[in-house]
Design a protein that fits this description.
single chain, about 300 residues, alpha/beta, Rossmann fold, 2 domains, eight-stranded mixed sheet, 10 helices, globular
Length: about 300
Amino acid sequence: MKKAITLLLWLSLLSGAFAQRVETVYRNPADSTWNSYRVTYPEGPIRGIVFISYASLTDTALATQLGFLHVSAVPGKDYFDTMFDDRILETTDEMLGELCRQHHVLPGKVILGGFSAAGTMAVRYAQYCAEGKSKRGIRPAAIFAGDPPLDYERLWHQAEKSVKLNFHPVAAAEGKSLMDSMIRRFGGSPQVAQTRYRSESPYNFYAEKGGRGYLLGKTPLRLYTEPDVHWWMENRRKDYYDLNAMDCAGLVNELRIQGSSTAELITTTDKGYRPDGTRHPHSWSIMDEKDLMAWCLRRLE
């Protein structure tokens, strides 16, 4: 899976990049599978950085034409550990520190984003910075994420259900990988380690004020989700309780309850399709890239 994700990342960067200056940085030249990032440069002055983990804009020019340094990164070896391993946050911090220093970008002119688990990582990194843990003084100007799982307690039950049902092989295999990752991180299921699940989730429905969600009160946040429950029921035997949309809506609502005016939830209909045209509501395509980059630019102003 790791090699496939890395290959897809670099292949996805090829489209639209031929007329742009592109540079790949392998922070460990002996291992090109992770701890690396690819930079696509704007033609003029750099206004800020758009940093995306495990993916890239389909059209990087949408970022570079606005003056953004577009960065696609692979900060960790295991994709699912993106949600749980704090070392990935430290590696991301190191990468951003290098980029800001080398390209003379202020640490507050950085926007992070990602899809699915990588979107979870972007949210976690913003919380990491809000706690003052960034050794490079990074304070993201904004965060965006496409359909990220945020409540690990709910995620465990979703994964466990997929494994037990074994209705779809991909869903069952993903559920098993998720459970293994959470057991490594938390020491067991929520029944065994409920306090850790609730205290370490980027958002938790049962925790007071959404748990760690309050840390995003001053960070502009945009979450995308396409809660097509009929597709999920028909194709995966999942219902609303199994959807990441629950977490996204819960976090944005909690932030608004606490007074945030910059937390946004974007819900879409029939926008989720894989690159081969296959219908799937959990897809990068639910994010309108042109509108998203316009939003990012406004966050810098």
